[in-house]
Amino acid sequence: MFAVEEINRNTKLLPNITLGFHIFNAYHNDERTLESSLVWLSGQGPTIPNYSCERQGKSIVVIGGATSELTVSMGTLLELYRIPQVTYGLFDPLLSDPVQFPSVYQMAPRDTSLPLAMVRLMVHFKWTWVGLVASDDSRSEKFLRDLQEEMVRNDVCVAFIHKIFTGLTEDERHHSDFLKKLSDSTASVIVIYGNTDVLLTLRFSEDPHTLIYRMWVTSSHWDIAKKPGYIYFDNFHGALIFSEQTTKIPGFKHFLKTIHPAKDSENIFLQNFWNSAFGCTSEIGKGDGAVCSPNASLDTLRLSYLDMTMSVQSYTVYSAVYAVAWALHEMFLVRSEMESNSNGTISGTYPWKLHSFLKNIQFNNSAGNHVILAEKKSVANYDILNYVTFGNDTEVLVKVGEFISEMPLGQDFIIQQKAIVWPRTWGEPLPSRCDKVCSPGFHIKAQEGKPVCCFDCAPCPQGQISNQTDRDQCMKCPEDHYPNTERIHCLPKRVTFLAYEETLGMALASIAASFSLLTALVLWVFVKHRDTPIVKANNRDLSYILLFSLSLCFLCSLFFIGRPTAINCLLRQTTFGVMFTVAISSILAKTITVVLAFRATRPGSRSRRWVGSRAPISLVVFCIFIQVMLCAIWLLLSPPFPDADTHSDPEHIILECNEGSLIAFYSVLSYIAVLALGSFTVAFLARNLPDTFNEAKFITFSMLVFCSVWISFLPTYQSTKGKMMVAVEVFSILSSSAGLLGCIFIPKCYVILLQPQKNTKKFLKNNPNS
User: Fold this and answer.
1) pLDDT, tens digit (0-9, with 9 covering 90-100), for 15-68
2) Helix axis angle, 662-685 to 566-600, nearest 10°
3) Which residues contact 450 (CB under 8 A, 6 or more apart)?
4) Of the four, 34, 196, 542, 557, which is 20 to 30 A from 136 by CA?
């Protein structure tokens, strides 16, 4: 009505021609739809096919088809006469087939952004388990495919898909199936897509509680508003509606405020609507209601009856009327030689002649938008409306967000969460999920054979955390951090090493210093009694060297205690290797001295020249030289260096000395082991030689202790980490050194200090067993 009146006032569009229109009922039933079409074709009289009884006001274009079913039902008959049919419903790919529907023109564009907009909403509120409800038609089928593809890309899963059929005989059975499917599903968010009348049964459910426990998401093409007077009008309270943004048409609101059936008494449609909306009657004595007020206005009606803003569907109808008007205008320009009849009709205006003009029509409407009737793609923008009902039987649509498809990702979706009124059982945004939430400290573990949204929750692996819910993967903590017990946060690792301040370090350092002092005291005893037989026996100089090296062996363990530095790391293993080589080579030389002494007693033995000479000292120097060369090569090629071990202990950073080359390290130890094995072998063979001060027995036992300590050291050293590994090596150094000191020298000190009478030549000469 508004578009026709506007066109008739426009002197530049169809000048000297007045447009009119007829309104016919469109039933959602094939037989009734065909009947309405025949009434339009035949006139107001009997519906006689191929006859037209209407002599005046013959229409040449049909604007109709809110649904594809209506369009197809009408098109079957209208195509026989090649009458153009302009539809104002949603775009349907099926109707764009020029072979099957050559006379159908779709006013709505092919929109591709609605599925993306809805999935943006799901992702924002973390709704990953969503049910889909749609009418059973090709357009809804295409929407469901696009929506599911977008949901898969964003890891949103389909809980169920339900299609509502249009057959009236199947409505009750399918409706009960749908309610059962809905009540059994764990999905709390349902997307609805389709036309109003096919989905109408959802609004009048016999079990409304099944519906109001859900969040409904739909588009403005499904009229979610209540039916007046229906008791369960708030089934969809809190629903979110995507309404395509349209440009305001100037003068439309003013037209709605000023329109009144009294101004157009011949408009039966407006009179019937007015009586129904206001609950009144136009004449006194007719009907049960009061007489309609002459001052009544449509802008006072509730949303249930009329939305004062121009909807997308209304905007499409408005554009369709203008498209027809401009097509007629172009046709009359081409046929300007034609004259009008006296009654105002156009002679020779046949519907089929309008096709060539409709196909190519382009124009700018009063809102300034460029309109093209030919098939086109567009990316629409959407307002997100919140449907809110009140206890006084009123309802409103409140804008709470928008989706702007032209904006970059991240800025295209805007939602005012605090402004949303949620369903009555919600009160706040609730998740819609297949499974429980994976709390922080856990990550999602997919279940085989189930959708990606249905998963198990597995604890984060060692060294990883998850500080958010539903993390696909846990995050690794930095090397200098470790996870807390709940594996939610990363805590800084504490630096640790074998320090002097702690009990273990202090105890080992005290033991090392005490044994080193004890060794120095033994050396002082031996120097003081250097002329006694027991000191002179088995090479006095070698005893001095052995005691001095043992004292340093105890002290070299101090390099292993304290914060590792470059100097410490360089001296630690090399000092230990050289000092132990001096000690073991001295013992080897002492053992060989015993053997040579007994060999020299034989007549004509060549061993006499080695007894008492500097040969044992030379052997010690030679053995030390080899170890020094090994250490020098080690320090030159791959020297030890300070290092931080962040992996062995999950809660500590262990400061240690990296050996640089394990081959060099074990070569040094192996060389000491060879010397110790040689000393043990020679001492074992010489243990029964008759001598008053024969050290072979003591050396054999000391080497047995030494080898036992270091054999047990190797597996223990490999199995421990951090400062305990250092403590194991320090303990091995102290225990093996103490074993040498105790087994070889304690018996001699006992004789020197407690039984000095046995340490004289007189005692030895008078002793028959000597």
Assistant:
1) 888 898 888 777 767 777 777 788 877 776 677 777 777 656 567 899 987 778
2) 20
3) 434
4) 34
